[in-house]
Design a protein that fits this description.
It contains 14 helices and 19 strands. By secondary structure, it is of the alpha/beta class. Strand 17 (about 380-390) and strand 18 (about 390-400) form a beta hairpin.
């Protein structure tokens, strides 16, 4: 759980974040600045009304300044403060303010000193970085050459920072954070957490959450999908810190009860960490036999420090000969049913368990693509075997996406199967899997 307790603005106050640059608009560079700034504002109880990304065009940037100042009390802008002809943010701010740009001598001195410390002569073009809109304040940049700018536009406070993340963060801490602290009102306490799930689609999760996702509810509940994981975000905002925490935890309990055992962790705990933890608590060991995933399950498990307590080792048996020679899979099974089949997956898991001596063994054999699929076994068909003292079960996963996605989702299915088994839960909780054969 994150404590985003304010020392921030009145909850009614709004902020707008602007990111400037063709490289952002064209998708050539990922804008990490906006996410970071939005999080910093949330920690201080300030809400962002919107984020905008604007190309390197003077009129577009100036218009964005005007809209932002009209709609928000605080405008934070990143990018477009460099020395080249396409760095137009300072010009656009002057345009929006209706003022001229003039040279700020102290800033020029600092830029020249920056180059001198490195044994270089400042290029003439760098002088433009010392140009300041009349009535604005230049902000020293201790991490680079481009000064930032603070100004007022239509009653809104505007901060402009460099687009280089290291420089932006340094300027935020030096100028924007103190500004927020100085202008703090009685901010609400804002607490957030997320519940991570794997094995249900986002629409299934939303259906199970039902009324918890009503937009006018406090705490608010929403979902986000990334890399096959559906995370349920819970945000509690109240004037009293104690109530904010109580309401948050009560909502989390309701979320967990509704989605069931597919919920594997809160906040940043990974699926592999939760799986290793469940195996350790149950006192179980596991071994792996992988074909289409090429050792990915073993890698995920061993990414977790201390996983040697539960993970004994594994095999990557990509060829049919390796399946037979290393795991004892009967070649006639492969000939009769094919390598991608419940029969072979079961034989792989059983052979893995008997040879490793582990309590559990998981196997994967499938068609990751982009080629190799048939009408009966299209790309994305993956059979997973799970062997235990109670016998061997096989599960069918039909996964969509490119090769890397199929492999990743298959490995996560295996991890979730192991976790559920260690906890004594029904693997049928994973809607992506179909149990095709009974325990044997």
């Amino acid at each position: 759980m994150e404590d985003l307790t304010g020392g921030g603005y009145d909850p009614a106050m709004q902020a707008v974040l602007l990111s400037i640059g063709d490289e952002l608009v064209l998708g050539q560079t990922v804008d990490t600045n906006t996410a970071w700034i939005a999080e910093q504002l949330a920690r201080r109880g300030l809400t962002c009304a919107r984020h905008e990304t604007i190309a390197d065009d003077l009129s577009l940037i100036a218009d964005a300044f005007r809209r932002a100042a009209r709609d928000a009390d605080l405008v934070i802008v990143t990018g477009g403060l460099g020395p080249t002809a396409d760095d137009l943010t300072r010009d656009a701010l002057a345009d929006a303010m209706g003022v001229e740009l003039n040279l700020h001598a102290p800033s020029l001195d600092r830029i020249e000193a920056f180059f001198a410390r490195r044994g270089k002569t400042m290029a003439e073009r760098n002088r433009v970085q010392a140009m300041c809109p009349d009535g604005a304040t230049m902000l020293d940049n201790d991490a680079g050459t481009a000064p930032g700018i603070r100004s007022t536009l239509k009653g809104a406070t505007v901060f402009v920072a460099p687009g280089v993340p290291r420089e932006m963060r340094s300027m935020f801490e030096a100028y924007i954070a103190p500004f927020l602290a100085e202008h703090a009102g009685q901010a609400d306490t804002l607490l957030t957490t997320k519940v991570n799930t794997f094995g249900l689609g986002e629409s299934d999760v939303a259906e199970q959450l039902g009324d918890l996702m009503q937009r006018d509810r406090n705490p608010t509940v929403g979902t986000t999908v990334s890399q096959g994981l559906c995370s349920i975000r819970v945000r509690s905002r109240f004037g009293d810190a104690g109530r904010a925490l109580r309401e948050l935890e009560d909502t989390v309990e309701q979320v967990m009860a509704r989605v069931g055992p597919v919920a594997f962790s809160r906040d940043e705990t990974t699926l592999q960490e939760s799986t290793v933890s469940a195996l350790r608590e149950a006192g179980l060991t596991v071994a792996t036999a992988e074909s289409c995933t090429g050792g990915l399950v073993g890698q995920m498990l061993t990414d977790v420090p201390g996983s040697s307590v539960v993970f004994t080792g594994g095999w990557v048996t990509y060829s049919n000969d390796m399946k037979s020679g290393q795991l004892g899979v009967d070649p006639t099974l492969i000939e009769q049913y094919g390598a991608v089949s419940p029969e072979v997956a079961a034989a792989m898991a059983s052979g893995c368990r008997s040879r490793s001596g582990a309590d559990l063994a998981v196997s994967l054999t499938g068609i990751a693509g982009p080629e190799g699929g048939t009408d009966d076994k299209p790309v994305g068909t993956v059979w997973i075997g799970l062997a235990s003292v109670n016998g061997t079960q096989t599960f069918l996963a039909r996964l969509a996406g490119p090769r890397s996605v199929v492999r990743d989702r298959a490995a996560k299915c295996a991890l979730q199967l192991l976790r559920l088994t260690a906890m004594g839960e029904d693997p049928a909780a994973i809607s992506w899997l179909t149990a095709e054969t009974a325990a044997r």
